[in-house]
Amino acid sequence: MSDSMVAGRYRLDERIGGGAGGEVWRGYDLRADWTVAVTMLASASEGLTERVRAVAKVVHPNVAMVLDVGDVDGRPFLVVEFLTGESLGEELASRGPVPVVEACDLIGQAAGGLDAAHREGVVHGRVDLQSLRRAGSGVLKVVGFALEEPGLEAADDLRALGRVAYEILTGRPPADAPASLRELRPEIPERLDQLVLGLIAGQSADHPSGESVRRALSAIARPQAAAAAVPSTGDSMPVPGAGAATAMHQDGMRHTQVMPGEPFPRPGDTVVYDQPLPPASNKKLFIQLGAAVAVIAVVTIGLIIWGNSKGGTPVAQPSPTIVASSTPTPTPTPTRTPTPSATLGLDTEDPGHIVTTGGPPKGSLKDTPQGGWQHFLAQLDSAVAAEGENVNPAVARQVHEKIQKAGEKFRRGQERQGRKQLESLGKDIAKAISNGDIPSSGPLVNFLNDWPLSTSVEGY
Question: DSSP secondary structure string, 51-97?
Fold first, then answer.
């Protein structure tokens, strides 16, 4: 390794942090042509190398993406995406306490990122205001994982996240026995107060998962949307409470839903999707119809015999009308012509070609989106994140990387190159959909219906 190059690819431009364990540099990837963050560790050990590789496996939209790991001259290095936004500490210093809904959103994003790390067996170990930083797109990301083994548990990360939430909501760090947030800021919802204080004081044995915290914060920030949503997984409910579970029948499915009660969902409070309920039995109706047919048959035979016995031609009698009084005849529902809506189509002859059909999109890459390109990229990144585990993790990493590259181009004023980057991304997404790596319907496809990643609304 030269003084300014790592692995013949990463140029070290400016030292931006570090300590006894190593240095963090703002660097430049000559091969990929974009800015990166390079962490050069002071020394190597088997445990440290394993820890670096474990952190590299954490792929989530709310975790700073690891782009490369390696070893040069006996020193391990880690290359991570370079985030141009402020940390929560910097934001708090410049603007003061964060609005309640925004705070729920930010802490929820951090909780989702930490949950992804915990699922990989990785504990952050340094969760604070400085380890939560925004990307240029506005998305919050978890950075600064402790590369030495922290000797902590996932619950320690969430307790630290509770302290961060307390500080960005009140403007002051919590004491050893923190006061109620509502005493310092009365407009804070009681459920949010309970959630944050519960995180800070929680014990490892009964601490909720990061995903449970994320869902709880989402339900607090947008209670109407949470009430209308139908749960889709078997994880703990997002509502910050774990009272009695109630069963409800809807659309032929049986659901168990946790109702608000205590600060967090408890073990065993889950959303359960059982087998579909059997359709309502028609046995009674069949018996009634069978009896009616039997009566008609008996009457008809009786008339024929009576007519033959009189030596005349039997006169046809009108058939009796059967009225099923217990089963009213349903009124036919008039068929409505569906209103055309925009859908994302895949060209069957060219899987890399996306076209919009059924309705006009809001714009294309020829247009500058309202709010600017960085806002557009933040919405696109959020649409990818909303797909969750439905997206192949490797594909999610590639999509995220291209979004970051496009953001870098736009920040430099290279708008044409940024549009080209997005156009290439659109083709990659189309191929991923055709391969089953991205769902063919959902938040991402809905976003692309409105804004196809092409220079024209017809396609590429």
Answer: HHHHHHT---TTBPPEEEEEEETTEEEEEEEPP-S-BHHHHHHHH-S
Query: In 3D, which of 307, 415, 436 has the Cα closest to residue 368?
Result: 415
Entry field: residues in the chain: 460
How would DSSP label each residue in 361-427?
-S--TTSPPTT-HHHHHHHHHHHHHHTGGGS-HHHHHHHHHHHHHHHHHHHTT-HHHHHHHHHHHHH
> Which distant-in-sequence residues (6+ apart) come within 8 Å of 305 by Cβ?
none
Q: Which residue has the tokens 């709310």?
A: 62
Q: Tell me the CB-side half-sphere exposure of residue 139, using CA atoms within 13 A.
A: 30
Encoded tokens for 93: 């210093």
Tell me the per-residue pLDDT of 340-356, one tens digit each, with 9 for 90 and over: 333 343 333 444 444 43
Q: Residue 341 has what DSSP assignment?
A: -
Residue 456: DSSP 8-state: B
pLDDT tens-place string over residues 292-308: 666 566 656 665 555 55
Distance (Å, whole) CA 448 – CA 425: 11
Residue 169's nearest CA partner among 235, 242, 236, 102 is 102
